[in-house]
Write a structure and sequence with these properties.
This protein has about 260 residues and is an alpha/beta fold. The chain has helices at about 40-55, 70-80, 100-115, 135-140, 195-200, 210-215, 245-260; strands at about 1-5, 10, 20-25, 30, 40, 60-65, 85-90, 120, 145-155, 160-165, 170-175, 180, 205-210. The strands form 3 sheets. A 9-stranded mixed sheet has the order 11-10-9-12-8-1-6-7-13, sandwiched between helices. The protein is globular and about 80 Å long.
């Protein structure tokens, strides 16, 4: 049986209107009121990749999510869609981790699981868009790694990945165990039925705290947030260049540009 681990992140809904977002200057946090969080869409792509593999080969799919005050109804979607197990890494110590400490924490959880053949993550998180956690996990575990996958298949005991490039895609073959970050080109996560959503609520969910992973996270942070703010935009000033003819308008425009030291 193939053991597949999928890392999923709870994020603010990227489809929420801009007007719903504010920044708390004191805590340096984004605040989104009245709109529930979601699973990062790229991580949903990764979960869909795992479920497609499960559909053709006997597999166990374990979803892992890291954070503080995680929303069970949101993350239970992974179980409803077809994951076999959901592990929540939930602790006050997991708040506002940088990419490095996130990768370290997820790696510790994956090692605690004991067995893994394939690790899947989204190409990047929908909130930070950093795209470095997957690579960090692969580096720590010493695994072969492919990013921006649009297709992931198991063949002859290894993995075949179609990787998105600017003018098409390239095919990469790797042995297992391996890690792949999945892009939106793979397709959206299947929509669970109402029966599946109800059944997911009855499945047990495992919760691990920081002490269960044996790591001291505050000492491991490598990035310090200095400030977080919404940029202030100044309205542009438009000046119409006039003239009696196109030639005169062109000459007047050249004079304006010269006065502005742009010519």
């Amino acid at each position: 049986m193939l053991n597949i681990v999928v890392c999923i992140k709870q994020v603010f809904d990227p489809e929420a209107p801009v007007s719903a977002y504010t920044v708390d200057a004191a805590t340096k946090r984004v605040v989104l009121k009245g709109i529930p969080p979601v699973i990062s869409p790229f991580d949903e792509n990764a979960l869909e990749a795992a479920l497609r593999i499960k559909g053709v080969q006997e597999s166990k799919v374990t979803a892992i999510s890291l954070g503080r005050n995680l929303s069970r109804p949101v993350l239970l979607k992974a179980l409803a869609a077809g994951a076999d197990e959901l592990i929540l890494l939930e602790d006050d110590a997991f708040e506002e981790l940088d990419s490095h400490t996130t990768a370290v924490a997820l790696t510790a959880a994956i090692r605690k699981l004991g067995q893994y053949d394939l690790i899947l993550t989204g190409r990047q998180a929908a909130d930070t868009n950093a795209g470095t956690v997957g690579a960090g996990i692969a580096e720590i575990l010493g695994l072969p790694y492919v990013s921006v996958a649009r297709k992931v298949e198991i063949e002859n005991g290894g993995i075949v990945v179609e990787r998105v490039i600017p003018d098409g895609y390239e095919v990469v073959e790797m042995p297992l165990p391996a890690l792949v970050t999945v892009s939106n080109e793979l397709g959206q996560l299947r929509y669970p039925s109402m029966q599946q959503l109800v059944a997911a609520r009855k499945k047990p969910v495992t919760t691990w705290r920081a002490t269960d992973l044996g790591l001291e996270f505050p000492q491991m942070r490598r990035v310090q947030l200095r400030d977080l703010f919404i940029p202030q935009r100044e309205m542009g000033r438009c000046e119409m260049v006039t003239g009696e003819s196109p030639e005169e308008m062109g000459a007047n425009l050249a004079l304006k540009l010269r006065e502005a030291h742009l010519l």
